[in-house]
Amino acid sequence: MWIARVVTLVLLAASFNGLAASLRGSDEVVTAGFITLHIERTGPPLQQSTQLSIQHLSEPYSLSLSLQPSQQAVTISGLADGDYLATLDSPSANSAQMSVSFSVKHHQLTLALALFVLGLCLFVLLVGMIVVGNKQMHDKESV
Fold first, then answer.
1. Signal sequence span per UniProt (predicted)?
2. Domain match, 73 and 125 both
3. Radius of gyration of the chain (CA)
4. d(Cα 139, Cα 64) in Å, to the nearest integer?
5. Would you give the distance in Å from CA 125 to the centre of its chain?
6. How many domains does the chain have?
7. What is the tens place of the pLDDT at every residue in 42-66?
8. What are the tens digits of pLDDT across the range 121-136?
9. Contact indicator for 85, 54 with CB cutoff of 8 Å
10. I want to staple 36 with a disulfide (CB 3.0 to 4.6 A). Which of 10, 26, 92, 141 is the partner?
């Protein structure tokens, strides 16, 4: 019984003592062109906005966003290939910084061009079959 009370007190103290929010990403490796970062608030509701900073680890690129207290997720797109670190900063003095890292790896352009050419060939083949079939139909009707 006393163990349950101690565990409850520890969890309660942790929730009010710096674990106001946690941050997690939808994927560790992003290929879709966007990433969704989820903010999970575990402590008392905040009245102030929080800062989300995204930093490219190998290039001098960073992005900073101000999130509303009730906001639970943010979707970011347009990031270049590479490794990133997203950090959630809360304005309160006793809150800890939460970070999550992710990588962006876009699909190769040659693959997209190959699929486009394949689709174009199928389209031209379809139009050709329609034209040839239509011509054969008119030839049969005129005989």
1. 1-20
2. no
3. 27
4. 69
5. 38
6. 2
7. 666 666 778 888 999 888 888 898 8
8. 999 999 999 999 998 8
9. yes
10. 26
Same domain? For 24 and 87 the reply is: yes
Reading across the β-sheet that carries 34-41, which strands appear in turn?
21-25, 34-41, 73-77
Write the single-letter amino acid at 60. Answer: P
Per-residue CA distances from 118 to 24, 67, 128 (Å): 38, 44, 15
Same domain, 52 and 73: yes
Domain extent at residue 113: 107-143
**What is the reported pLDDT for 27?**
65
Q: Is the dihedral of CA 48, 96, 87, 23 positive or negative?
A: negative
C-alpha span between 34 and 23 (Å, rounded): 16
Same domain, 119 and 133: yes
Amino acid (1-letter code) at residue 67: L
Count, residues in the chain: 143
The verdict on 65 and 38 lying in the same domain is: yes
CA distance 41 to 100: 15
CA angle, 28 as apex, 26 and 34 as ends, to 5°? Answer: 55
Cα separation, 110 vs 97, in Å, equals 40
